[in-house]
Predict the structure.
Amino acid sequence: MHDPNPVLRGRVAAVLGSNIDTDIIYPGRYLNITDHEKTAEHLFELAYPEIRAKLRSGDFIVAAANFGCGSSREQAAAALKFAGCGAVIAASFARIFFRNAINLGLPALVSPSACSECSEGDELEIELVSGVIRNLTRNRTLAAAPLDPRAVELIRAGYEADYYPGDIGWHFWVTEGDPLPQRTLDLLARTECAFFGAITSKPAAEAARELAPELQGRGLTYRSPIVRMRQLLDLYICQRPCRAIPGNPLNYRDGIDIVVFRENTEGMYIGVEFPQVPESFYAEKAMSRIPRDAAISIRSITARASYRIVQAAFEFARRNGRRKVTAVHKANVLRATCGLFLEQATEVAALYPDIEFDTANVDAICMWLLKNPQNYDVIVTTNLFGDILSDLCAQLVGGMGFAYSGNIGQKYAVFEPTHGSAPKYAGLDRVNPIAAILAAAMMAGWTGEKAVESAIHRAVEEVVRRGEVRTYDMGGTATTTQMAEAIASEAARLRASP
């Protein structure tokens, strides 16, 4: 077990005033740096360059009120941490800076009297949980707000990892013409996995209208960043667990436990589309049935992609004691593409005689999932059908507030809550964070941290079961933060248990 009240010891490197904003801590001109360790080189570069020069590993920064105000840039907290700062003590913190610091493992303690009771060079001893700060140089004891045990868990790196922010989404489309900039792809190449937050996407025509004036007329076309990541990184598995958590008032029925395996790299989502049929296509006789003013999208299905997604579904079923795999298709109409998928599924199934195998047309299974959802275990299908079915299954177990997935390849994975960005709720602290939390748990498990994954799942189940904290979608009044804090505290308690 960890020490329940860890103690930090270090020297005060600097005492600063009020309203030290993130631009003072880390200048905005360096926001293109995505390697957190390199951010340390620019700590306080514009306003207090001498601090960086004299900061030693484990030293403390002391400040007055509203430390970390301004923008939400994560690099400010990262620069302090990787420069060696052992903790920041301030009369108060900007809320987002405080969260960024704790998430990065940098202790941030609130102590209204620290600025007046500490001087540069003083030696301090800090008890994180009890909130006691001892100035050993002056022989004085200061009070600080105790850190929540969940924050201490993060600071002690119970799940050890280096976190790097990556630029992605609508803002970068509008300002740069690319919602997935090359610098972010370069960052992905240097990491083991990624956590993808909810972002906004819009239709092509609307996206073109919202481009910055200097980017319009250049022929830029918006493409979904997550679809591009799946294809560029060959994240061919989209694994969507859909399990009814006991006590969830939103469950369609209790006992539902379905995992959807969706082929992620081809099908209708390859991005080959034509607003008008190219004239050369009419060299094929069958194309004569297509009007010349039609728009078309290409559906590409290969034997290789079909085989490996079905094999992944069966391997998962065998490892996890699952009883049945259902391959979903529409081969009675889409004879070429779904026919090929079904052939490969049947071939793979023959290699797993210990696991029951059946097939279903996509329209029929939508009906049967509503009628008898407990009859299904593992579902495997093509890209578009998987997109639709996984959302249907998510609604059976509580809706998008509980929907998460892993986009998994041979060497890399991207984990995400599968709901959208919901801009109408931005800043309201209202939406259900469980999908994001479960996606993070899935990521921990994929990296080998099975104990962390288990603790998070058990914590979610316990908080939902008790029903004391519920967000608006569950019929309650709890905020996003309150739900997250309840789960985090329960996870910390479970991990601290012998």
User: Anything to note?
Assistant: The two ends are 7 Å apart (CA to CA). The CA atoms of residues 122 and 138 lie 8 Å apart. The mean pLDDT is 90. The first strand starts at residue 7 and ends at 16.
